[in-house]
Amino acid sequence: MSSNANTRWAGLAGGTWWFITLSGLALLCLLMVFSEQESIESDIERRVTEYMDAENIDWISVELAGRGRDVLLTGNAPSAESRDLAIEMVEGVYGVREVHDQVVINPSSSSSELSIKQRNGRISLGGRLESQASIDTVVNAANETYGNDNVINELIVSGEVKTANWLDATTGFLPRLVSTKSAHLKVSDRESQLIAEVESHGERLKLVNGARKLLGSYLDVKVAVVEPGSTAKSQLINFPEGPEYKACQSKLDSKLKDKRILFASNTAELQPGSHSLLNQIIILLEEECNEVVTDNGLTIAGHTDSVGDDRYNLALSQKRADAVKAYFVKADVDLGLIRSVGYGESQPVASNDTDQGRTQNRRIEFKLEHK
Prior knowledge:
By secondary structure, the chain is α/β, with parallel strands linked by helices. Helix content is about 45%, strand content about 20%. The protein has helices at about 5-55, 80-90, 130-145, 165-175, 200-215, 245-255, 275-285, 290-295, 310-330, 355-360; strands at about 60-65, 70-75, 100-105, 115-120, 120-130, 150-155, 180-190, 190-200, 220-225, 300-305, 340, 365-370. Strands 6-5-4-7-8-9 form a six-stranded mixed sheet, covered by helices on one side. Strands 1-2-3 form a three-stranded mixed sheet, covered by helices on one side. A three-stranded mixed sheet has the order 11-10-12. A hairpin with a 3-residue loop joins β7 and β8. α2 (about 80-90) packs across α9, α4 packs antiparallel against α5 and α6 runs antiparallel to α7 (about 275-285).
């Protein structure tokens, strides 16, 4: 090979070497950036999804692919309030930079719910169904089985829920609960559970088989045998008028006596000075009232005074109740059904003609449900 050829090859090899080296370094940097971004996106998506699952928000979809720390939310929300609360929750997840909302409001996307409690020949009905006709179906079936005087009806109509396709099967199961010492049947589109006590293993087998035949194999069944003469007391079912229920409601009321949860003026921004009171309430709910709240549910109620537009006050009271619920969620409170409701100026506890009265009317209340 001539010297000129060697020179040209050496020059070409040197230039190619630097080109390959720089290109390789650039490619490596890109791969590292993409790998890190995928890791960050995957981690945030996992945390957001776990958060939504923990709150039983099953109508929402989370997407981060190619978005870095930004989260895209899609799905059919049962209400604007549910959508806004979900967005607020996701914004509070560590690592999230911005939430992009493409959620559609679909009031009929939420599940109907029915709770049936039976003890000593009395039955309590709770939950929400899509129409008064559906409620009448349940109440009439309960009356036929237990008698009108032994039925407590606390079912409510909700335009935000879907038709309960399982309603006929559930009402058909009511006569089977008569033989139990106590029972609690909860049914919805998402999950169903039967907790009961019977007096023999034969009755247990009949109840379990009948429940699965009528309500499906996905039913979670927990049936205990308490034989006649046993000193064990039934603790499965606590009716609303029970002493534990009343004691917990009294303690909640006492926590708020002469105290208020404070917000920045005309906003739903919690004042830091209220965090201590909220933390005390959380401790009470988790340590002293856990079973009662989990079994019955809790409503966080927002109220305003009468100053200003009615619709504005209603929306503000809802946002403030949602903010308190969001505080509970961020504190990992796990007590079953906790809902937030705004009542605006419709339920005053004092006159709105004085500053003192208006101050009393601007409040948050915690009310145990009757399920």
